[in-house]
Amino acid sequence: MPSVYLGDFPEPDRIEGAPHPRETHRLIGHAAAETDFLQSFKAGRLHHGWLITGPRGLGKATLAWKLARFLLATPDDDGGMFAPPPPTSLDIPEDNPIARRITALSEPRLYLLRRGLNETEKAPAQDILVKEVRKLKEYFALSSADGGRRVAIVDSADEMNIAAANALLKLLEEPPAGVTFFLISHQPSRLLPTIRSRCRELRLSALPPDQIAQALEQAGSFVEDAEALTQLAGGSVGEAVRMTQLEGAALYTDLVTLFSGLPRIDRVKALALSEGGAGKGNETRFDLLVTLLDLLMSRLARAGTLGMTPPEAANGEAALLMRLSPDPWAARAWADLAQSLSARARRGKAVNLDPAALLMDMFLQIEQTAARLAAR
Fold first, then answer.
1. Closest Cα partner for 256 from 125, 366, 116?
2. pLDDT at 217 > cutoff 80
3. pLDDT category, 93, cuts 50, 70, 90?
């Protein structure tokens, strides 16, 4: 089927360790977005293109698959006396034949556009290539005789290269009959303005701690401190899953403990943390350390700007934030450092610098900034 990912490679739109969005029938949160779509459907004003936006991991893909199930499993209202009553929710039973086919990627009226294989057909592509959009166009042409509703999910639209984006734009400008597009975007500002203008937006917001806990439980994870995890994950379920799998909360606590000694840090502890993100197989830990360092810098900047601390993500964090960033002047210094360290991490990774040396250098940059602020 056109939705099947070719080759013996992980699905590019699946978060490792979590169910695929098509396998998650219960969407946690985002009731406003569901209501918006349902009202449009019932009013007969269903737009042909929907742009589902928000930070990564909020449930955008889960919503797109839920909307696809709803559209394909809900019968048309022909206006007759035996027409079904108007739907009151988007929920479709899991044992519905169409829902089962969608989960199995065997529903012929659904097309999933995502990263495929590269031009050599031997490895995953880094972007959604124009050849994938051409396959989508051919599919619509071949399935047009079947009639009825059809759905295309683009996950994610951010990954299209220029040629693919322009090819999809042509489909949005002249949409095939009966087709509804769901475009998932983590950074909609980077999409072509013409693509955005031809879609109706459903914007999702960060989830509160209780809903993060519910979503993690549904994904097979349990956390004791949902508040702290929500602070680290920014209200993103996907990021919360990653934090849980990699023990991100414990690692952040280690960073707070290390920096509690600023304006000087314990070199031995700093070296141990640095080496923990080095070596083959530790790439994910390195990425997480960089993410957590960036988060800590951002929280320092926020504390100094607002004159108050956010809910703690680790014991002792609030006192640390207020001591190191007591005013807007300090906040600006930490914000500038966060931008500098983020750029340095990207450059270092691109040229294969030693991860341990790169992390240690970042720790020393933080130490120097804290010492400069303390000497004011």
1. 366
2. yes
3. very high
Say if 319 falls within a structural domain: yes
Residue 223 belongs to a domain: no
**190 vs 14, residue with greater confidence:** 190
Residue 346 has pLDDT above 50, yes or no: yes
Sign of the Cα torsion 129, 5, 58, 227 reads: negative
pLDDT in tens, 10-53: 788 887 777 889 998 889 999 999 999 999 999 988 999 999 99
Asked if residue 225 belongs to a domain, the reply is no
DSSP string, 339-356: HHHHHHHHHHHHTT--HH
The identity of residue 170, as a single letter, is K
Domain shared by 81 and 163, yes or no: yes
Q: Does residue 289 surpass a pLDDT of 60?
A: yes
Which tokens belong to 44? Answer: 């007969």
Sign (positive/negative) of CA torsion 311, 313, 318, 324? Answer: negative
Residue 363 domain boundaries: 246-374
3-state helix, strand, coil in the chain (%, to 5): 55, 10, 40
Can you spell out the DSSP letters for 39-77? HHHHTT---SEEEEESSTTSSHHHHHHHHHHHHHHSPP-
Round the average pLDDT of the chain to a whole number and report it.
89
> When comparing pLDDT for 112 and 118, which is higher?
112
Sign of the Cα pseudo-torsion (222, 230, 50, 153, in order): negative
Instruction: Report, as an integer, the average pLDDT of 202-219.
Output: 88
Q: Do 57 and 132 fall within a single domain?
A: yes
- Close Cβ partners of 221 (under 8 Å, ≥ 6 residues apart): 241, 244, 245
Of 152, 179, 203, which residue constitutes the final position of a domain? Answer: 203
Phi, psi of 347 (to 5 degrees): -65, -45
And the tokens for 175?
């949409």
Q: Confirm if 71 and 109 have CB atoms less than 8 A apart.
A: no
Q: Percentage of residues in the chain with pLDDT exceeding 70? A: 95
Q: Is position 3 within any domain?
A: no
Smallest CA-to-CA distance from 182 within 100, 61, 11 is with 61
